[in-house]
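Quick question, first post here. What does this chain look like in 3D?
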Amino acid sequence: TGCSRPRGECGGALQGNCAGRHHHRPRGEISDIWFETTWRNATPWDKDWTYTLPFDDTAATAPGTRLLVFDGVKMGAEIKLNGVTLGVAADQFLRYVFPVSGVLKPTGNTLEVAFSRGIDVHGRYMGCTGGWDWAPMATTTTPLRSPTFTLGIWKSVYLVTIPEDGAAITHVVPHTFYRGRHSTSPLAEHRHAGFTVNVSVHLLAATAATAGSVEVVPGWGGRERVTHPLESSSVVWLPVGGPGEAAGLVQTAVTVTLDAPAADIELWWPNGMGPQPLYDINVSVTSGSVATASITASAGGSTTIRASPSSVHATARRVGFREFAYVTANDTDPKVVAEATRLGVEGTGNHTAAWRVNGALVFARGANVVPMEEVEGRRSVAALTSMLVSAAEARMNTLRIWAGGISRRGSTNSATSW
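> Answer (accepted):
Ran it through. Tokens below.
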């Protein structure tokens, strides 16, 4: 994350990571944040900062709904386009989407993101911002005296068009469920109860009349395609006052259920206990006159929306299959299990804690992971991947992700498949 540049450039054509680094040293006002005690200097942060970006947009007048997307803004900021206030970003963990078809011009646009200490963000920012028991304690606070440190645009900013009769995939969330009973002995490959996968596909459309279908293709077995129609009855309007209300945008979610029988899959095992096979789930949406848009994760962990009026776009998620149980009772004693079932409780107060993966008890070897960098924009995917690979090579099989940081998505997920 970073300080913004007063009236300076923010990036190229609203694509990529728009000023996503911590310090740009605007006009020499900020030196290296970790040099000696620079981080104790509150002067740069006790003022309001503004990102300003002049840009042209050749697609401003194209048919459809033009959207301005902020994947991540830290601390309170008012967002303006050509002098028109689009909204206020006050939650670091949310994506903000603004319809801008009536505001954009082919040339001479000005985007402003004005950070103000007077905007209450209700604590919705990375917990270790401003310090923790392991992190440097800054001297800066929010108006409510909560410790803080950095501010800025810490993820991508970009424009996208949803065609008049099209839809965009905004999120794809797969959930896997083991179909068998809890096991106290290791499951046998290809001879267990199998899994069910519910794939939730979240969509944003330009009109409630959008028609088409969502297609989901599993990466196992015969790769049978599962198609779900888009129906106007499934559309849910955005909340009153939401960013899409003025433009008539609608959002909906479609859930597609996939079958993963034991014969078609390999089980996922912790590091040192077996392999970690992963399977792709490919998702595409066709709407209207085969005009679609989709949001896909890039290798760097950021997200980009791409649209085309003449082709079907797709995205993918990756899953593994395991049965996981956190055990706080003697699950090998039928009497204990029967009594817990009768009382409708889980666990006891007089038994150690353990967990099973695919029925096998796991001897946990691992560590607690805190953020490798307190300044989000300076984090390195390569460094994080190196740390994860080193942990695996040290025969660790468990990492507890400390809850006061930021969840890292994207290419680093491939390194944590163990």
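The helical segments are 334-343, 381-393.
The mean pLDDT is 78.
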